[in-house]
Amino acid sequence: MAATPGAPAEAPVPSPGPTSGTARPAQGTGHGLPVCPPAVAALRERVGVFVRDHVMPYEPVLDANGPQAAERWRMLRSQARDEGLWGLPLPGELGGAGLPLEHYAHLAEAEGASDHGPAALGSAALLDVLMLDRHARPALRRRYLRAVAGGEARACYAMTEPDSPGTEPALTACRAVEEPDGSWTLTGHKWFVSGAGTADLVTVLVRTEGEGPSTDGLSLLAVPTDAPGFRVVRELPVLGAGGQWEIALDGVRVDADHLVGPRGAGLRIAGERVRLGRVLRSLRWLGQACRAYELMRERAVSRVGGRGPLGEHQLVQRLVFESLLAIRTTRPLVHEAVARIAAGQDARVETGLAKVAAARTLQQVADAAIQVYGAAGLGPDTALPALLRSGRAARLLDGPDELHITSVARRVLRDG
């Protein structure tokens, strides 16, 4: 990369805050953040070390999702249990540690520094576990809840459809018809379903009454993936990376007790899930941004050219500064959203701000790190291509940035 020489930094480049980079877990909580209790800070340090030492070195194997991946997942989950790190935010009665959200938020960045960190440590199941725990009927709970919480079964969530945007559930066309015996028959397509290729249970947003466009008459049904008529159509690589799937429901029949929550309450329950999911994703994107920042910082310090270390060039210093600024200004927004959700308050404005800021920050910092690395940042020897891909996808996942921008703006213009 072309750069202009400049004065050397007056002090070492600071760490961006509480998460794990590729070299070491960073220290501190960051200015203006809720105080992290000492026990949680120690736990955060252990989580960061686990992700760095046991997950990151095996990311290519886990990405490939072949036979070696299954064995590696088994080993990771066993190690997490042995070290007392399994299911930290999951309810204690289901085998988790029962950490409240405001405490788990301090760990989620460290877990999320790798896309595979939450799954390796059991917290990736949090949204499905909470939804089933709060809204599933007894028979469904008995069959799946403890298995999903323990990692023996995998669950996922299907909302978006090929012919309608996921941001407009009123256009949901996937339909469930109640049969005379109380069972349900589902017909339709869903796509961009995370984890559907290996899932045992898919919770599907369907229309049970009326016609679209309407947000009335939407319900949630849990569908076992081994049910006749359930079909994985294809994997949908996102910028070349797997993990998203298209599924078809060709007359799938499920029992009455597979209705999740009251009939017609699907959108309300989905809203609970989506709001928490956006905040969790934002925390994990921050963790990945910090990972990219650490890679950039180390490269700037260690890479020496004909005019000295890269870090002595003013343009590189600017990239480092802007990246640190983005991380430090985004983190309080995310924790504010966490605090409001944990307190049961309306967090729609805070969640929208956090989601957009975290997505932008990940893309910005990953891009800056690649620029500092030069051609090496484009190749397979660092995590930077994957981090940049995640950053670009983040601006669409859980609703595109534009949706959150207009939603927040309308709300504050109306309510002040």
Automatic annotation (TrEMBL):
Pfam families: Acyl-CoA_dh_1 (PF00441), Acyl-CoA_dh_M (PF02770), Acyl-CoA_dh_N (PF02771). Residues 1-32 are annotated as: Disordered. Residues 156-244 form the Acyl-CoA oxidase/dehydrogenase middle domain. Residues 42-152 form the Acyl-CoA dehydrogenase/oxidase N-terminal domain. Its cofactor is FAD. InterPro entries: Acyl-CoA_dehydrogenase, Acyl-CoA_Oxase/DH_mid-dom, Acyl-CoA_Oxase/DH_mid-dom_sf, AcylCo_DH-like_C, AcylCo_DH/oxidase_C, AcylCoA_DH/ox_N, AcylCoA_DH/ox_N_sf, AcylCoA_DH/oxidase_NM_dom_sf. Keywords: FAD, Flavoprotein, Oxidoreductase. Residues 264-413 form the Acyl-CoA dehydrogenase/oxidase C-terminal domain. Homodimer. Belongs to the acyl-CoA dehydrogenase family. This is Acyl-CoA dehydrogenase family protein. It comes from Streptantibioticus parmotrematis.
